[in-house]
Amino acid sequence: MQLREMELDLVRILQKDARISSENIAKMLQVTTEEIDNAIERLEKDNVLVRYSSVVDWSKIEGHEGVTAMIDVKVAPKRGVGFDEVAHRIYRYKEVKSVYLMSGAYDLSVTVEGRTMHEVATFVSEKLSTLDSVLSTTTHFQLKKYKHDGTIFGDHGEDKRIVVSP
After folding, report:
1. Which residues are registered as beta bridge partners of 148?
2. pTM for this one?
3. Is 11 within 8 Å of 18 (Cβ atoms)?
4. pLDDT digits (tens, 9 = 90+) for 49-72
5. What sign for the dihedral angle of Cα 94, 95, 98, 99?
6. pLDDT tens profile 66-123
């Protein structure tokens, strides 16, 4: 899909801050609010803008820190479908947050989230590594998040956790 320069600028703005108003974007790009709204509608319809999300620092919420693991997966690709079939099977699990086809020693990079290390380890040993095409896995547990999707995390030593009551 070929985008106009204004649409490319619009996508870049929304990628940085999806909550910015159409009015502010229109001022930034020197176009009308109607043009922005129409462009957003088209980009959503064409699945260029797929979803709007928030970046959350779960470490700030006591009892909800969770565990994230990045798993390198070596796969035996199937004739005619390559890696697509096994990637599809993997990304359908609720624990899986992302799957990427990679170059290098491993074929797939899988990001998994769970409540505990044991929960993630159980997912790897009982679900992921038992798939027919999976030859091997290497699991890397995330110890601390410094930056994610362009957002810097942390208070540089200050503990500002929020306690959420049930």
Report:
1. 151
2. 0.74
3. no
4. 998 888 777 777 777 778 999 999
5. negative
6. 899 999 999 999 888 899 999 999 999 999 999 999 999 999 999 999 999 999 999 9
